[in-house]
């Protein structure tokens, strides 16, 4: 999840500033120079597809200040029901990770 306040497990502390500070949107600038892979279903109510898209938009804005070429970024907003992701997206994430490792060896 990109915003922990969306999870029902955090309902009791949803309005506290410490919970808000954990939202990944606050980490867009520090993560702008890192390779990232993100995949989420287009209607994920558990962690919030909209929160994930918001983070990616902030990440893209932060990346505009990075030197060329920017680090690898793959973002998929996919047709998966609810909070589930098809195995192919998980496999694509593993392949992305392996490619980053191979590029840095």
Account of the 3D structure:
There is one protein chain. The chain has a two-stranded parallel ribbon. The longest helix has 17 residues, at 87-103. The protein is an alpha+beta fold. The mean pLDDT is 86. The chain is built from four helices and two strands. The chain has helices at 17-21, 28-31, 49-63, 87-103, and strands spanning 36-41, 73-78. Helices cover 39% and strands 11% of the residues.
Summarize the structure.
Helix content is 39%, strand content 11%. It has 105 residues and is an alpha+beta fold.
Rg is 15 Å
Low-confidence segments: none
Structural class: alpha+beta
- What proportion strand? 5-15%
Q: What average pLDDT do the residues reach? A: 86
Molecular shape: globular
Task: Give the topology, please.
Elements: H1 17-21, H2 28-31, E1 36-41, H3 49-63, E2 73-78, H4 87-103
Parallel strand pairs: 1-2
